[in-house]
Amino acid sequence: MTLEIKQLQQQIQHNCDIADSKQAGDYTLCIYLLKMREYFRWENALGFNDPIPKKELGLWLNDKERHWESIANLNFVNLSIDQKEFEPFNNEEINNKLIEQGYVYNAGIGQRGNKHFFLGKLIKKETHFNFNILVSGQELARDLTAPPAFTQEQTIYIRRESLRRMIWERVEEWQWKQSNQATNRAMTYYDMADNLDQALEKLTDNELQTVLLHEIGELEASNILGEQWQEMLYVLPKSQAELMARAVKDHIADCTSTLPNLIQQENIGSIHFYFGNFHSMRKQLFPSLSSAYSQWLEDDHLENVEHTLQKACTHWRHVAEEMLDIYQRHGQGCAPYIEKMVQKYIY
Hints:
The chain has 14 helices and seven strands. It is an alpha+beta fold and 347 residues long. Strands 3-4-5-7-6 form a five-stranded mixed beta sheet. It has a two-stranded antiparallel ribbon with strand order 1-2. The protein folds into two domains: 157 residues, no CATH class; 166 residues, no CATH class. The N and C termini lie far apart (51 Å).
């Protein structure tokens, strides 16, 4: 790593810390502590099976929270590359400089309006039709949340290290509880109980494809819904309506891209893993998909799932269009109207 990249890493991590200082309190205490535990593991380069020293974790947690408190009112800093400064959300121009050096950067706005930043080593760059795919490996700077995938404009960012870490969190939860039957089936499919490290690598590689299929679906949905969809999300942060809107767009992506392709590929392990992670608002709005999955487990035929997906494609696009219509009519006051409308369209 060159001196310039090290300095850039410090600047990006500083922005990550500022974002965390404003956003870490959004989590419930339990989720917050779990995320901080894994953040400690990443920051200290510990393996997933390495024990976490409790005393050191406690001291680190206190130091981290004091640091966040000291920078909570600061603004994000510009990034310096080749003696030129870039606004931190200027992903395109920053990556034009970094990709040729083997790095990839992203700054974006995620759920609840939260800001996310990361810098990683570039594994792969591909172009499909009219969009780019950037896959990163080792992460040099990241925030607490570290979403494993992100789509902006016509570029899909996939973070393998964050995906692997997210999958490990699911595996760890499964080891503790083993109450999620879909996850149990996925773990059995990957032989997780007998060879954890090998199975985790295989599962991560397989889920890279699932994540890519979902992001392609998200990109196609964005092109259909237009720029006004993102404008609508900006006025819905930290509301039930925002969670509904994001779930609806996820359903469009998964009904048109993710699940149809997994079924066509007969990727059984990923189908089980998908339903093991099918919860919260997505599951609440789309109970018929859970029913179709249960039916498949009984009769070993995926036709019912495919039929449900085909009908749901039209349904969720209609719901998204209704959301946009409400936004056009009510503007910044649209949230309660969206919530009321979506409750009528549970499918």
